[in-house]
Amino acid sequence: MTARLIDRMLAVLEHDILPLTREGVGQGNKVFGAAVLRKPDLGLVVAGTNEETRNPLWHGEISCLNRFWALPQESHPAPTECLFVSSHEPCSLCLSAITWSGFDNFYYLFRYEDTRDVFGIPHDLEILREVFRCEDGDYAADNAYWRSYYLGDLMAEGTATQREAWAARVERLRSAYGVVSERYQSGKGDQKIPLG
After folding, report:
1. For the residues 129-151, what does the mean pLDDT come to?
2. Is residue 22 classed exposed, middle or buried when 0-12, 13-18 and 19+ CB atoms within 10 A define those classes?
3. What is the CA 23 to chain-centroid distance, rounded?
4. Residues 6+ apart with CB under 8 A from 121
5. Is-contact 145 99, C-beta < 8 A?
6. How far is CA 19 from CA 31, 33, 113, 125, in A?
7. Could you tell me if 112 and 125 are in contact, meaning their C-beta atoms sit under 8 angstroms apart?
8. What is the per-residue pLDDT for 1?
9. pLDDT in tens, 76-132
10. Is 179 helix (H, G, I), strand (E, B) or coil?
11. What is d(CA 183, CA 161) in angstroms, rounded to the nearest whole number?
12. CA atoms of 196 and 74, how far apart (whole Å)
């Protein structure tokens, strides 16, 4: 299941989340996005991207959750029947939103350090440290509400051939996100997003 799961999540990041993020960054939003998949068949329920230019609370995960909860009640599964996929490790706002929404898991591709060092957005680690006294983003990744999974750790469990293929896909994603990040960084001064 792990290999199938990783392949599917990388595909969702590339084909469902990243295109929305490119569009969102074109409107002045940050580079974060998320998707919800059904656990049994890994089918896409919904995807979303950052919409902070509309509302500073609409981070990528929040946008995705808004879309999920906007679906007619009879047409979306229970959160515990789903997998939550995030392009980046969720910030404290999004960790709380995932919790309050009832998801028992989330998976992410880029860590907080990537968000800060590669994508030039340091606020996740700074808020966790300043508000919650949580140094280095060391929240409880396995707790009474959910378990979080860094895709890089899951990929390390694959065969050498799988790891090589996944590393190539992640590098393509890192490069693509780098391009949209540069676009965001070059235009963020034009936006009135708190903590831009």
Report:
1. 95
2. middle
3. 16
4. 30, 31, 115
5. yes
6. 11, 10, 23, 26
7. yes
8. 63
9. 899 999 999 999 999 999 999 999 999 999 999 999 999 999 999 999 999 999 999
10. helix
11. 34
12. 37
Rounded to an integer, what is the distance from CA 184 to the centroid of its chain?
A: 17
Q: How far is CA 137 from CA 36, 92, 181, in A?
A: 24, 9, 21
CB 108 within 8 A of CB 150: yes
The two three-digit tokens of residue 165, written as one number: 């293929």
Per the listing, tokens 């009640």 go with: 73
**Does the structure show a pLDDT above 80 at 74?**
yes
Distance CA 143, CA 85 (A): 18
15 DSSP assignment: I
Strand 44-49 to strand 82-88: parallel, antiparallel, or no bridges (unpaired)? unpaired
% of the chain surpassing 70 pLDDT: 99
In the chain, the N- to C-terminal Cα span, in Å, equals 38
Contact 183, 24 (CB under 8 A): no
Say if residues 106 and 148 touch (Cβ distance below 8 Å): yes
pLDDT at 169 over 70: yes
CA distance 109 to 150: 6
Alpha helices in 133-188 (DSSP H): 151-155, 160-187
Query: Pick from 22, 21, 23, 28: which is nearest to 189 by CA?
Result: 28
Flag whether the pTM goes above 0.85: yes
